[in-house]
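ligand=magnesium ion
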Amino acid sequence: MTAPRRLLSRLRELMASGNTTQDASPYAAPLAELVRLVASELVSEVCSVYVQRPGDILELAATEGLNPSAVGRTRLRVGEGIIGLCAATATVENLPDAQNHPAFAYRPETGEEPYASLLAVPVRRAGRTLGVLAVQNRTPRHYSDEEVDVLETVSMLLAEVLAASGQTDGADEGLAGTLPRVFAGTTLVAGIAIGPVILHGGFHITGKLLADDPEAELRRLHDAAERMQRGLDELIEARMPSTVAADNADASASREVLEAYRLVAADAGWLRRVGEVIRGGLSAEAAVQRVAGELRDRMRRIADPYLRERLADLEDLAGRLMRSLSGNIVAHEAVPLGAILLARRLGPAELLDWHARGIDGAAVEEASPSGHAAILARALNLPMLGGTRGVVDAAGPQDQAVLDGDAGQLILRPDADVRQLYARAMEARSALQAGWAALRNRPAVTHDGVPVSLMLNVGLGLELDQLDITGAAGIGLFRTEIAMLARGAIADTAEQAAIYARVMDAAGDRPVLFRTLDLGGDKLLPGAAVPLEENPAMGWRSLRIGLDRPALLRRQLRALLLAAGGRKLSVMFPMVATVAEFRAARALLLAEVRRVRPEPTHLSVGTMLEVPSLLWQLPTLLAEADFISIGSNDLLQFLFAADRGSPALSGRYDLLSPPVLDLLEAVLVQAREAGVPVSLCGEAASRPLEAMTLVGLGITSLSMPAPGLLPVKALLARLDLSAFQPFLAAIRRNAAGEASFREPILNWAREHGLPV
Ligand code: PEP
Ligand code: MG
């Protein structure tokens, strides 16, 4: 028998012996035996278990090889030393020379000086770290993959022993678990929800961990995988009626996102890996949990957001497979009213399931705006936050929460007063929304009669019905890359043409400004051969890729011309930094125009203005571009040197500030002189105070995400521009180094009874 199999079978005997109590510390006996077994089977001189205690303390609970008197005495904070690092990051530390690692923390009482190499593995259960299992050796060595594998398997068993003992620290235990806590996050979908929390995932095994008969376990896995695949097909079919409701938002979402998911599900690689782990001696459930854990670790190390998304899909599938193994393929029970889902990660199928069960909101620790779950949540108009780190561990099953998607925060266990406040805000909002809906067919015009064009930013087919829902004037920004990201690859010319034609059909007479692929930065396709860059937002991305790979860009331009098929066509280029780049891109477009018939009846070629260098090339640019669209998201990022994706910086620099308003005015004045239309299409346009100020400056064409359109229209309908403009001019004239004009503008709006 190989060492790992022998170790597992001896551990099985140990666990079966029920040797768990009678001691002052109820798990001291099995732990002592466990570390002894591991040390001897792995041929390591030391094996130790550290258990997490209240207050984020890791305590040495058992050791073979270190000084026995250190047990119960040696304590490290989570994050302190290699052990603390392993617990804090929940990743394996495999170090040939641990004592020279910068994180090493010396504890003389342990007597660990002679040991050079260290392998530390986090002990996790249901997504929580319960402790750390470590082995050490005198000789400096890198532990083999097999050794890491074995130690990770042992750590799973250990997690069950610790959980059964009920003595591990719980972040949700004690007084701290009853107090309100606020978690800041990123708004993925605005809106408010109030209700009980529901925890997603965190599944753990209720049955056996070790396989008595690996062949039987493999058969169970095979059957469960088939059941899961069938359940998934049914779910996707139910959500993706291929022709009947092609315009329905859910159906479109399914087409564009779930197709990618189905491919991941059908990929045999991860199931093979589960099979391997079963052959190593684990039960099917334990093997799935193990592989899900490996995926989580890989996700933590992968920066590429798109690959992370793929791995999140796989983790989602692991959860389904686990349920399938337990015979419970789809959970149908409805959830309580107002339920808020808390998840570490969430795949698209899980989101659809939960939505069908009636959740009112979701907070996901690891979710990005371009992630699958966020794309679907937007289509379903489900309030959602991303980046709410720590919320899953902090929440208990009985907790209530307020999800404030507008302010980007989740309040766990809110005071009754806070809940009431939000309940009132929700009521007021539904009343407001009812009022806004009435505005849909009214023209967008200020109270004193200045017309404003309010358009939509769109990225997916499923958002097209927002044109009619909001009564938008058109699509001021169609982000062509989003559909490619949703499908996981760049579609060929014909497929692209079909996508763009659908957009033009939906818009009818309303204008659509198509932006060419803006890939790179945070928008990466899987497997894209992009160089590793220190600052991807400023790297080889967007039009830079298009110009260096002209075949790719030309294919897209051809698709746009084919889609237009003799209609009007407006195309703009993202991330243009020089007039020369604009010229080169336009030349590629004109070359395609010569090849494609019928020609568009009218062709407009414009540029995004989102790189500050263009500001000093405006006279030349304005002589050549048919229109300009200001991308304030990127423009502010590059202007203030402030990463737009960093939660720590959000709100630090303001569009309503002297430099930005001066800049925008300068662009406007020059564009007006040149007779070139200017619009602004960053997220800022959807915020009433910003929209009002932009219109006050003279930018009367705004393009924004759909939820902002009617509130902005409502505000403009009550805005007297002739009163606001002199006020705005005065505060700008009297500016004395303020970082922001937000407060005086807000006060003015309130004094004038505007709905901000
Ligand atoms: C912008 O940068 O403001 C913009 C609209 O483009 P994106 O958000 O797609 O980068
Ligand atoms: Mg941009």
